[in-house]
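Lecture notes, unit on protein representations.

Consider one protein chain, 346 amino acids long.
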Amino acid sequence: MTASSHLTVYAGHATHLGQFRKSNEDSLAVAGNLCLVADGMGGHEKGEMASGLCVRSLAYSSFFTLPGGMEPEEEAAFLEELAQETEGKQKGRGLLRRKETSALNRQILKTLDKIKGLIGQADEAIKTALDLRAGTTLSGAWLTHIGQQQMWFIFNVGDSRTYRLVRHAQEGAEGTGEELSLEQVTVDHSEVQYLVDTGQITALEALTHPRRNVITRALGTGNYWEPDFWVIPAKEGDRLMICSDGLSGELSHHYMARVLTSVQHPQDAADVLQMAALRAGGRDNISVIVADAITVQESQDRAQQLEELTATNAQQMVATIDDYDYTHTTDTEEKIFKSERDLETQ
């Protein structure tokens, strides 16, 4: 697989304080192929600081700029191990026994441990800076590749969510087609989710339950913050949505699915979802990222098209400024005006 055929994220995002909040305690970031949404809590500016610290701590990490988070030496060792494993299988030796795992699976587990460590560092940074007076949820998706395998690493703490569009093959009178449906990947860490899981209330009742905003895991609070992880194979055309509960709490699953399947550009989809959440009530801060998986080559082509569409005469002049011969204003002023010392001697 060449570098140009690797997948990259093409994303749109939107955030709003909502109709009734005085500040926006949500933070989001799209850093390369990493997408993050954090929903702070603590009141005043503390929640905003907690979510901001969380997002910056992860977005600034060089780990997410490396394939699978592997340093060059580690990647070389993995590829060598993978080649040996493949050679053994081709020769009929080295068939995996029941309790053995492949080189790829071992590397995935190492990557998950490193991501967990980075989230733990964000937790410590929030606790140190805010003295356990604020916390934040976190939901994120990272598109990367380990060897030739493209994959999404999805992680979650709290009740911010990550969804994905799932493609289903469908056969009909007109032949084989494709159907899209929206799947919630993450599971909320909240009291109402526990009640739903144990059969005490229904999912519909959870939407209006008086304790629907009480979460059971968060970063920075000193309580349990263990993240959940999902590793999903990635392919061209994938679409994910990461959002705070200010969006998912206002819009129905059906409406979000309709927007994500019908609005082509991810920025347009994010804008439509945000405005819909505001019209539906906007009772909380609203943040959303819509992320598409496209090839690096397609990303470069889109960037070139955008540059051509937005090109102006002024930009063309700046690009060729070295071709112009001109006299700077200060050169003339220095000849006309005498210095203070010259004036004093007169």
